[in-house]
Amino acid sequence: MADRSEPLFLKLRRPNIRFLFLAIIIGGLAGYGAVLFKLILKYMQWVFYQNTADWLTFAGTVPLWMKLVMPTAGGLVVGLVVSFFASEAKGHGVPEVMQAIALRGGRIRKRVAAAKIFASAVTIGSGGSVGREGPMVQIGASIGSSVGQIFKIPRVHMKTMVGCGAAAGIAATFNAPIAGVLFALEIIIGDFGVMQFSPVVLSSVMATAISRYYFGDFPHFDIPTYSIVSLWEYLFYPVLGVVTGLVALAFTNSLYWLEDRFDAIPIPEWTKPAIGGAVLGVVFAVYPQVFGVGYGAMNETLLDKTPFALMLVLIVVKIVASSATLGSGGSGGIFAPSLFMGCMTGGAFGYVVHMLLPAYTATPAAYALVAMGGLVAGTTYAPITAILIIFEMTSDYSIILPLMLTCITATVMNSTIQRASIYTTKLLRRGIDIEAGRERHLLSHMLVKEVMVRDFVTIPQTMTLSSILWTFKTENAPYLHVVDEDQRLTGIISFRDLRAVLNEEGLADLLIAHDLATQNPVTVTTDDTLQDALDKITDRGVSQLPVLSTGKEPRVVGTLTELAIDAAYNSATVKAEIAEDEQRMES
């Protein structure tokens, strides 16, 4: 037991106490980062339009030339920042944080926070149709990474520090501390363990307290009173989940389709955001609702003030505007655009069902509120975060069941149709697959020949059943490898393959190995990675694979078991942690 008189600085060296202390620091810095970001964003809007109010309140007074020129100028400035100062500031930010955790142990360059604040503020202030939560996630994560690097946190714990910053960013942006915690655990860290949970909670609470001190404790939206009119309404929410899921898929695919088109243009990269800004200027000159974050238009829909036809049009227009902004290289988040599209989708859906069944359904605003969560879940594949962020904005428990039905439906449907979320799709396009996290990273760097078992049993394909049974008895082997006269693998036999014929009389000398073997078994070669082998084992539901040599005439040279892969992964993990601890002690 530790000495109660132990000095405070020694207690802080304990990992658990130290991490909690650092989480508070990260939460405080990220909270003030959010305050600074909001102030700079307002200032940038004033620089471009000499007005800091919601765009809808003064759009009619802005001349057409300014609506076209200012987004273009903003795009040009962002292009220069991204190209010559910090390329990580491009796009919606969250994939860059996930990539830093997967490939760089959570290390993010210290300049990223400053670059992201400036680039995103210019993008949104000039009219970019994106959100500010993605930038705040990256800003907070960068702060968390910088704190971790300053205090020489081991690599294995750096992702917790990054997660603390990400949670603080979401919490301070949306005034939603619980959603901030779940976002970090569900998307950034991917781990709900106590060692991750406690620091993330502290960081989120700290950032929320700072944000509320400066901006008050109130939601971004004029939230309508929510209620379930009848039990029949519960039948409509899974349908709403399907609809929001389809819109989410359209947004994800449109975003990356436009990004490909912009990448293919043979001009300097720093000029492309200006082209996106010009396109955006044309769009919001006609539809001012999609300017910037779009909270004003969402508030009107939540108050049932947006016509049905306009809601349908704004879904498509917002997809185009947000995709043009981000696809061209602008800086901003996809969370707010998802909320916007969900609001319009739900409002239009609610209008239809309320028109058909007015006595059994709530007003369109209620469906708009629920669909906001559904579309976030459909793009991010993070239903828990989507449910909680809407719940925290309403503080109304009656919305939970409709939210759960809609968000889970959208997530399950979209993840079935398209494996990657809007975040991980960007990483997959870079050749980075973080679905299996550290396991995939480690196993992809180990070869089958390093861990395969070279002691295996082969039998000729002409061996009789009686001899096969004797071989199983004497060799104590789970599988027998059947080979032809040239020693090429033709099949494998497990004892399970023999059960159907064991009680049949007169077959012991009639059946041969060729008749009983599983033909064309799944195999791996000596030069395959353990990740490739694990994927095959998982897909086929087997416990081991025959290993073949490479070359024109492959031969059986070993066998690879799932237990061997697990042992190799555990050994590699322990070695990596020991190396990190030794490096930390040396530094």
Automatic annotation (TrEMBL):
Q: Where in the cell is it found?
A: Membrane
Under SUPFAM superfamilies, the record lists: CBS-domain pair (SSF54631), Clc chloride channel (SSF81340)
Parts of the chain that traverse the membrane:
20-44, 64-86, 161-185, 197-215, 235-258, 278-296, 308-328, 334-353, 365-391, 397-417
Keywords assigned by UniProt? Answer: CBS domain, Chloride, Chloride channel, Ion channel, Ion transport, Membrane, Transmembrane, Transmembrane helix, Transport
**Entry keyword annotation includes Membrane:** yes
Q: Per its UniProt entry, which superkingdom is the organism in?
A: Bacteria
InterPro entries, per database record: CBS_dom, CBS_dom_sf, Cl-channel_core, ClC, ClC-type_chloride_channel
- Start and end residues of each CBS domain: 452-510, 517-577
Pfam families in the record, alphabetically?
CBS (PF00571), Voltage_CLC (PF00654)
Q: How does it sit in the membrane?
A: Multi-pass membrane protein
Q: What is its main location?
A: membrane
Which PANTHER family does this one have?
A: CHLORIDE CHANNEL PROTEIN CLC-E
Question: What name does this protein carry?
Answer: Chloride channel protein
What does UniProt list as this organism's lineage?
Bacteria, Pseudomonadati, Thermodesulfobacteriota, Desulfovibrionia, Desulfovibrionales
